[in-house]
Amino acid sequence: MSTATPSLRPWVERMRRGWRASPLPGFLGWWGGQLRELLPPRWRGWFGGGADWHLLQHAGTQWSVRRSDHAEVLASWDDGADTAADGVRVAPVALSAALKRVDREDLRLALLLPPARVLRRTLALPLAARDNLLQVAGFEMDRQTPFTLAQVYYAVRELAAPAPPGRFSAELVVATRDTLDPLLARLRAQGIAVDAVDLAAGDSRLGANLLPPEQVPHRARPRRRLNLILAAASVLLAVLVLGEWLHNRQLALAQMQAEVEAMRGEAQQVAGLRQQLQDNAGAAGFLARRKRDTVAMLGLLQEVTGRLPDSAWLERFSVDNTGQVGLQGQSQQAAKLLDALKDSKLITDASFQGSIQPDPTTGKERFYLTARVNQPKPPVSPPAAGGSAP
């Protein structure tokens, strides 16, 4: 643990510096204040604003305590009155009475030193020294002050003052151990533990802690543990809500996919029925066109019967799919049959197939005549308006 802490300290300092430089702390402070204003006054104390600093000062033999940024003294006591007649320490009693309304978890005490007892130096340090300010300041102690590192308590804080390129401004705050140790020993004798040793700046403090990290008292923070538990619960609830939302989206997606599949099946069925309807309509149209464009067999028989003479009679009459007509029979004058069929509107290209032969039984001439059915031409559709005929 001791070897890991120094290696993690630069990273922690870098994160802390980035957090302080970001606008998030100010925004969260403003937002929390606005939310606290919405709560009843009795509940606002449960949501405190963090550390509540109170300042201890020593002048001569007199101790005083006041709240940071306030000039009003809340309690005071003298070094010579450490113990009352009944054996009770005066300082802790006075301090407790002054701070009885302050939440013990938020209470922070800072010992303020007068400016005359503190040495302050402004340094221009390289940017690489930001991650190890205390260590760099310790190396610079002999050059910047007349003291050695073992003789002082010190702190370093980064300034917003302009600095040369590649450097930043920092302030070194130093107090000798001979000055600070007696005050800390006196406070420990009175049963008072301080969280910081700082420099007075008006009614507030400078913001530098001269107290070494090993001497800072460890304070239990049950609210922080509660906040961590609440934060973990919030994250868990958020994850559960997101998981439930994702589950609902997946169910909705599965339902939509099922509906799409059902609609696709219905669409395929409708497409099949439409295709069947189109096929049936095409077949019906084809039959209608075939019927319209084909000469009726009854009309053809009527035409042949009307044009052949009464002395001719047929033994065979055939019509194939190509419109070829075959007439086989007997007639007294078979050669005149071509003239009888010449002006027909239904039969064209009449000609004898083979030779005309006499039949000794009937005394007539046997013939075989071929012709073609004169198919009617389909009607020509009129050209579209504004267009030219093909």
Automatic annotation (TrEMBL):
Q: Pfam families this protein is in?
A: PilN
The UniProt entry, under InterPro entries, shows: ATPase_NBD, Extracell_DNA_Util/SecSys_Comp, PilN
Instruction: Report the domain of life of the source organism.
Output: Bacteria
Entry's transmembrane regions:
226-246
UniProt keyword list: Membrane, Transmembrane, Transmembrane helix
Protein's name in the database:
Tfp pilus assembly protein PilN
